[in-house]
Design a protein that fits this description.
CDP_ALCOHOL_P_TRANSF_CS, transferase activity, EC 2.7.8.-, CDP-OH_P_trans, Four Helix Bundle (Hemerythrin (Met), subunit A), transferase
């Protein structure tokens, strides 16, 4: 929901940083290093080092934006890089939720399971539409720098980052926060399935009408 406003704000500072890295690292290397930092949040959360886990989350998200900026400024954008980026993103998101379940299974496990269930819907609807949109050559006007069609929803990247940070800042309230975010994810799944289905239907009808 907020990505169309937050992404333009981060492009310029990330591109300045990317210019400094040009020739020193590849976008895929940045992606993988950011993932390794982010995945360290799993054991940190399990051991209840919430402050360090928050640092890992923030650095991972910084790297997630930096790899795309580096790809653009260095002319090394690729579908392979976009695939690696989004694939590792979803593994990282799930790892953070799992970390909270391991930290306090008695209190957190059910809420974590609900959130993982809900996030499967957001992820699959997001990626499935991206594949169909690519095949149908549907443009993505709001997110021209993305490697795939960015299907919007109530819980996008910005909301997910905020949720992960709130989990780390207020671990005692993880259950409540996770349930609230899970409900938002379920709403996102429903709207994406509905909107994606009718977008593809209208696009096909329009293409047939002009044939």
């Amino acid at each position: 929901m907020l990505d169309r406003w937050t992404m333009p704000l981060t492009h310029r500072p990330l591109e300045r940083l990317a210019h400094r890295l040009t020739g020193r690292a590849t976008p895929d290397q940045v992606t993988f290093i950011a993932f390794l930092i982010g995945i360290s949040a799993l054991p940190l959360l399990a051991w209840e080092y919430y402050g360090l886990a928050l640092v890992a989350v923030v650095l991972n998200r910084l790297g997630d934006g930096l790899d795309g900026a580096l790809a653009r400024v260095s002319g090394r954008s690729s579908e392979a890089g976009g695939f690696l980026d989004i694939g590792l993103d979803f593994v990282f998101y799930a790892a953070v939720v799992l970390g909270f379940a391991l930290a306090n299974p008695a209190e957190n496990a059910l809420a974590a399971a609900l959130l993982l269930f809900a996030s499967i819907g957001t992820g699959t609807s997001f990626l499935a539409f991206a594949i169909a949109a690519k095949q149908q050559a549907i443009e993505r006007p709001h997110f021209p720098n993305k490697a795939f069609y960015y299907l919007e929803g109530l819980t996008e990247g910005t909301e997910t980052v905020v949720a992960l940070m709130l989990f780390c800042l207020f671990p005692a309230h993880f259950t409540t926060l996770a349930v609230v975010f899970a409900v938002a994810c379920l709403i996102t799944t429903a709207t994406r399935l509905w909107g994606g289905y009718w977008t593809l239907r209208r696009h096909k009808a329009g293409a047939q009408g002009t044939a």
